[in-house]
Amino acid sequence: KWTGLNELREIYLSYFESKGHLRLPSFPLIPKDDNSLLLINSGMAPMKKYFTGEVTPPRKRVTTCQKCIRTGDIENVGITARHGTFFEMLGNFSFGDYFKHEAIPWAWEFCTKVLELPVDKLWVTIYLDDDEAHDIWVNEVGIDPKHIVRLGKEDNFWEHGSGPCGPCSEIYFDRGEQYSCGKPTCGVGCDCDRYVEFWNVVFSQFDSDGKGNYPPMEHPNIDTGMGLDRLACIMQGVDNLFLVDTVQNIMKHISKITGVDYGDSPKSDISLRVITDHVRSTVFMIGDGVMPSNEGRGYVLRRLLRRAARHGRLLGVHDTFLWRVADTVITENRGAYPELAEKRDMIVKLMRVEEESFSKTVDQGLSLVNGYLDDTVKAGGKVFSGAEAFLLSDTYGFPIDLTKEIAAERGLSVDEEEFARLMKEQKERARAARKNAGADAWAGENDQLEGIPETDFVGYGTMKTEGRVL
Ligand code: ATP
Ligand code: MG
Ligand code: MG
Ligand code: MG
């Protein structure tokens, strides 16, 4: 019925508006006043202060579609059907208002009545001892108790340090036998792509002190997260996230540039999916003011761009091309995220500059790294030297994680201790050199910049870093 990604977003947000929720736009990817997180990774992350009560929310019921980045999933991207480093998370939130008796039946109504997902393909998980949730699912919703699975802390209890936390209940879709890993243990909670988790309903009902005590909160909260891209994948019946309507258009553009079609080979398909994903995440990051650098968020951006560029090389492209694909990402997403259209020129330009700078050294770096790897493998070695990884990083712009990945493809690990030692020595040398250059040189400049927090992009004219205009 509702299948387009843009339609699905709208139908979700308006469903929860009909349940008294206030629709808010996505928050930016750079967290505000929160040093515990590099990039926003869930719908609830930018609203933490509404949950703790530190800030009063504009309404007790809120619904959003939040842009998210999860670099922790980078190794899954292109491999599993369901992980991107960028994705959109739909959510409905209750700040001390409704709780399980509303959140669970609404989630079910949305899945089965609005989306008309077949009941026999749906499964739910609950936290081990959450009998309250169990009883609501069985008695109020009426689902088959055989389709309820109890899972432990790792999957079904939400906790980040101290503060609001609690059990959760997740909804899975069974995509069928053909997606199963085939292991006898395959079932809900398996790592393979048969049972796809698409909605997490969190009951934050405890206020943990971080020392093992979980006193119940007077006004418990609801925080839910449903992957829009995953939902679209299920509704469209396609194999993976990158074949979803709007995302597929990005991949098609890459095929057009590279001359490699989706389906040509399993290896090139991985590269196509990786490039699609990484261009998506980097366009959104740059759009929210992240600048390439060797640290923090800027490193994440640089690493994603360079990883995508390397996959471009694997597909045989030697010209810069990511910046061209960026344009399609913007076209596909400008309806929901008008900020991308506003910043189009800046995004494309920045991407092109970063890509061109890497493209000067990437071929030489790749031939070096492959040479080292050939020699090491021939000699029966298992470890790639830290000195070589350092040279690749320092001279050829290869982020250490990229070198690690290329080495791992040949079964080698990198001597990271040696790499870290060489990095540190280099920083110390640079610092000493700046000191020696004297007070009237340009030298002090970089020292002053050290320790300054990441830059926020607040418009074309100004770059503001916590009150300082640079
Ligand atoms: P998984 O177990 O599949 O890695 P998760 O348990 O880490 O997912 P949650 O933290 O519960 O995911 O996030 C809520 C929802 O966000 C998920 O149910 C899923 O629909 C979506 N989601 C999470 N990670 C990703 C990702 N990397 N790419 C796309 N969607 C995601
Ligand atoms: Mg995960
Ligand atoms: Mg999970
Ligand atoms: Mg989950």
Explain the overall architecture.
Keywords: Aminoacyl-tRNA synthetase, ATP-binding, Coiled coil, Cytoplasm, Ligase, Metal-binding, Nucleotide-binding, Protein biosynthesis, RNA-binding, tRNA-binding, Zinc. Its main location: cytoplasm. Belongs to the class-II aminoacyl-tRNA synthetase family. It comes from Caproicibacter fermentans. Residues 3-470 form the Alanyl-transfer RNA synthetases family profile domain. The longest helix is centred in the last third of the chain and has 35 residues, at 344-378. The protein has helices spanning 5-18, 48-52, 100-114, 131-141, 153-156, 228-236, 245-258, 266-287, 296-314, 322-333, 338-342, 344-378, 386-396, 400-409, 416-436, 444-449, and strands at 22-24, 61-69, 86-94, 122-127, 148-151, 157-158, 163-174, 195-208, 216-227, 383-384, 413-414, 456-457, 463-465, 468-469. Strands 1, 2, 3, 4, 5, 6, 7, 8 and 9 form a 9-stranded mixed beta sheet that branches. It has a 3-stranded antiparallel beta sheet with strand order 12-13-14, with no helix packed on it. The chain is built from 16 helices and 14 strands. By secondary structure, the protein is α+β, with helices and mostly antiparallel strands. Helix content is 45%, strand content 17%. The protein has 2 domains: 5-236, BirA Bifunctional Protein, domain 2, CATH 3.30.930.10; 244-429, no CATH class. The site of one magnesium ion has 2 residues, from loops.
Write the layout of secondary structure elements.
Layout: H1 5-18, E1 22-24, H2 48-52, E2 61-69, E3 86-94, H3 100-114, E4 122-127, H4 131-141, E5 148-151, H5 153-156, E6 157-158, E7 163-174, E8 195-208, E9 216-227, H6 228-236, H7 245-258, H8 266-287, H9 296-314, H10 322-333, H11 338-342, H12 344-378, E10 383-384, H13 386-396, H14 400-409, E11 413-414, H15 416-436, H16 444-449, E12 456-457, E13 463-465, E14 468-469
Parallel strand pairs: 1-2, 4-5, 10-11
Antiparallel strand pairs: 2-3, 3-9, 4-7, 6-7, 7-8, 8-9, 12-13, 13-14
The structure holds adenosine-5'-triphosphate and magnesium ion (3 copies).
